[in-house]
Amino acid sequence: MIEETSLMMKTLFPGLVALPNLHPLFVHFPIALFLSALGMEALAVALRREKCHTVATWMLYLGTASALLTVLTGLGAEFSLAALHAQGHDAPGHDYIHIHRRWMITTTLFGVGLSCYLYWINTKEKWSTHRWVLLIGFLMLAMLTALGADRGARLVYEFGTGVNPDIIKTGHIEKQSTTGYTQGGEEAHTPGAPASSSTPGTDASTPHPHDNSDTGTNPIRPGEQGGREGE
Ligand code: HEM
What we know:
The chain is mainly alpha-helical. The protein has 2 domains: 21-157; 165-224, no CATH class. It is 65% helix and 2% strand. The protein contains 8 helices and 2 strands; from the N terminus they run H-H-H-H-H-H-H-H-E-E. A two-stranded antiparallel ribbon has the order 1-2. Helix 4 runs antiparallel to helix 5 (50-84) and helix 5 packs antiparallel against helix 6. The protein starts with a helix and ends in a 44-residue tail after the last strand. The model is unreliable at 176-230 (pLDDT under 50). Residues 20-21, 23-24, 27, 30-31, 67, 70-71, 74-75, 77-78, 81, 97, 100-101, 104-105, 107-108, 149, 152-153, 155-156, 161-162 line the site of protoporphyrin IX containing FE (HEM).
């Protein structure tokens, strides 16, 4: 029964099953909600429409709630990654996670503060006198979110944090030995490579432009980054 469920999950949600932790599932909510809240509040101020302000209010509240949950999953991701390495939190490159963590905890606390301010404005009906200060608050929150989330994206896409290098290696090896590898019943292909193996230049004998099969790893690994605490 458990095996059948796990097979079904792998077939329906191969991406979800491959996630190293829950953090990537949550990160999009605060980003989308905080940025949309800024857009909605800007519309409210520009058009003097209180209805837009009400939508922005709920976007901010939901964004803050989702940011709090995302921080929890981020801390979980940090600890699970540290547990995988013999040096734990002192592992080379781990300090970059701390940089992202500081940005995101600051962003979330700012979101909590702005939500309290907004609640006070709405209950005292002071929107018309406070709308410009509030809009600046929304703008600052959006900027913090964008800058901090960018550090998170960098963790994954530049340093390969949380990405298992063996998976990349396996993909390349299987691609070389067959006409394309299959996973979970679907045809899969190496990211960046054309899906069809009949495409000129993608046969087994031709090296792939992104191929690192001599090392089987990402070009940049966390260990090569050293300390970046000052960023
Ligand atoms: C509002 C809070 C947060 C947001 C919006 C956020 C956003 C992001 C984003 C966009 C990524 C790249 C994910 C991807 O593209 O797959 C990421 C990765 C990551 N973040 Fe966060 N983050 C938040 C809080 C935190 C916190 C507090 C930590 C604690 C250290 C953390 C640790 C990580 C780690 C370890 C990764 C690497 C990918 C992984 O293993 O999940 N994040 N984050």
